[in-house]
Write a structure and sequence with these properties.
Number of strands of chain A: 12
Oligomer: homodimer
Distance between the termini of chain A: 78 Å
Order of helices and strands of chain A: HHHHEHEHEHEEHEHEHEHEHEHEE
Radius of gyration of chain A: 26 Å
Mean pLDDT of chain A: 92
Strand content of chain A: 5-15%
Largest sheet of chain A: 6 strands, parallel
Number of helices of chain A: 13
Shape of chain A: elongated
DNA sequence: TTGTAAGCGTTATCAA
DNA sequence: TTGATAACGCTTACAA
């Protein structure tokens, strides 16, 4: 049906292998035949069949992207659109293609990955998250399949190429910023505990407190995994302590919006009697009321660097393991005020 | 290197074709050999090579997803995460796989599509947008390649299977809601004019006004394509009219957040002296301050139905052209108040 | 019920 | 500089 390399060969009076070489722009073909063949390809409307090419060359020019539970509401987190944007830009430049996992549960995702790898559908994989005890990581390592991870590996960091922020510093910087404003009662509201990013930001938070001789109070530390409804309860408890925090460090923008809503309902005014600083600096940090002071982690670059380094690895298997740290910075907006207020 | 169908065949003492049939669970193979072969597959850790299978069977079990300019900030619009979530769920159930376009410009996207189609990388395509004069649509139709469109086709609607909301009604309903609250000076803030969705919602807005004998004022109609900075200027002009609107219909949630921010800066209080209703009911409609009254268009279902119907078409080429309308509904929150206020 | 063998559309190895 | 031809790993007539 579709015109193949053979049709072109026949029409151009050359062998299929010659046509193949013209496609690859091999230097071993005379300019003359190249021209001739190209003309015919044009005339016949020839377009190479990628599947056939993949089979023959044992490479798909496709990267697999692994999402954490796409069925989950957390998929709505703009973090993913933004990394994907970075990744898109990266692959587009390099003429690679993207394939996604679609699993909802941990097992489905694992299967998606196995299918990608064993089915030889992709040349390499990018993991968009890093968590404790991830079967996917174990599998990939055991298969020695090329992948890069966005985030900090749970273990064996020196053996896994990854692109990450220095989230410990980021957590520390955010906390120090609040301390600098005079706050001493600072609450921490984190996402899923099993995610490395949450753990690191929490570690940074603690570090900053310790450095400033402020005792760490466990009751100031909350994990708001249930974004909307569930989260509210936790915040309420936090703000109903006899000594409630005067400032909050929230590890994720989407959560920060939820927190904002809850504390408003509780009668707080941000930033007048409660300061909030969040992470990621997604588009709507700027659009929130009040606009959120946020730690920009350059999500786009996270994605961009991930592809770059994965492709580097694919093109040169000897490429060393790397750790790429994307810088972060505080974007000051209107959600933080000087402490310490009494109320 | 990897274990192939031949290895399994040899080890099981059968022909490769038999193994192939076992994989396909063909009824023409005895339970006995099936069992035997399956055991061997297990032992050898056999996994079919999808690329080879695709080449032989001329089908990839992969769907191509076409985004509008992923390089653009509008990609950050939660609409896309949410359709993607619906699509993911759909393909996962049916064991299809997803491949994305990564182009930034119209031409790059067009090329992405051509590569998917001519390169035989995908069996069908889902377009996540619908706009005026889209080369991609023309190409797909001319190639008679299976695709479904999310939104309303610019032309020949009876000839293109599409999944859409009744956006004219939706626009009308939103406007009627505001009229019902007593507003008569209602502004329309739409996105890109070339998008069918914008056009339809605008049409609905006009319809509602006409039905209520309210004259349409062109100066009340704005198109805020530049989301953040650019948009502000348009809103300012709108609100600085001698008779500014008392209510706003904003065709997109992300834009609504921007509008909210701008009118706040202008000294308005939503909803006390300005009402806002928006569309899409994305996660943060609920999280905005104030929570936005929004027209829920069931984005998830839009994606889900799109896959369903595309796969139907792939499995049965005679499947008729269809138009699927996903219902919408108004979710009342806190961004609208009774009109008409004077100020 | 199973086997043989010819594709599927490329790439890549050897010769020429 | 080019051409034959054998892979690549599977599916699918057609035979047996």
């Amino acid at each position: 049906m579709a015109v193949t390399i053979k049709d072109v060969a026949k029409a151009a009076n050359v062998a299929p292998s010659t046509v193949s070489r013209v496609i690859a722009d091999s230097p071993r073909i005379s300019e003359n035949t190249k021209r001739k063949v190209r003309t015919i390809m044009e005339e016949l409307g020839y377009h190479p069949n990628f599947i056939a090419r993949s089979l023959a060359s044992q490479s798909t020019q496709t990267l697999g992207i692994v999402f954490p539970n796409s069925g989950n509401i957390s998929f709505q987190n703009p973090f993913f659109s933004e990394v994907l944007r970075g990744i898109s830009e990266g692959v587009n430049d390099k003429h690679y293609t993207l394939q996604l996992t679609s699993g909802k549960t941990e097992d489905e995702i694992y299967n998606d990955v196995v299918n990608m790898v064993q089915g030889r559908r992709v040349d390499g994989i990018i993991l968009l998250y890093s968590k404790k005890d991830d079967k996917v990581v174990d599998y990939l390592r055991q298969k020695k399949f090329p992948f890069v991870l966005i985030g900090k590996p749970y273990e064996d960091q020196e053996q896994i190429t990854h692109v990450d922020n220095d989230n410990i510093s980021a957590g520390r910087d955010g906390t120090k910023y609040l301390l600098g404003l005079g706050h001493e009662r600072i609450g921490f509201i984190g996402g899923n505990k099993n995610l490395m990013v949450t753990a690191d930001r929490l570690a940074g938070y603690k570090k900053a407190l310790i450095e400033n001789q402020i005792p760490i109070k466990e009751e100031y530390i909350t994990h708001d995994e249930f974004l909307l409804e569930g989260g509210q309860q936790a915040i309420k408890e936090l703000m109903h302590l006899s000594q409630p925090p005067t400032a909050l460090l929230v590890t994720d923008e989407l959560m920060a919006l939820g927190v904002l809503k809850t504390v408003h309902a509780l009668g707080y005014n941000v930033p007048d009697n409660l300061s909030i600083i969040s992470f990621n600096n997604a588009l709507f940090a700027e659009l929130a009321t009040p606009p959120l002071t946020s730690i920009d982690i350059n999500i786009f670059d996270l994605g961009m660097e991930a592809v770059k380094n994965l492709i580097l690895k694919l093109e040169n298997p000897k490429e060393p393991i790397k750790r790429i740290i994307i810088p972060h910075s505080i974007i000051v907006r209107k959600s933080c005020e000087r402490g310490s207020h009494n109320y």
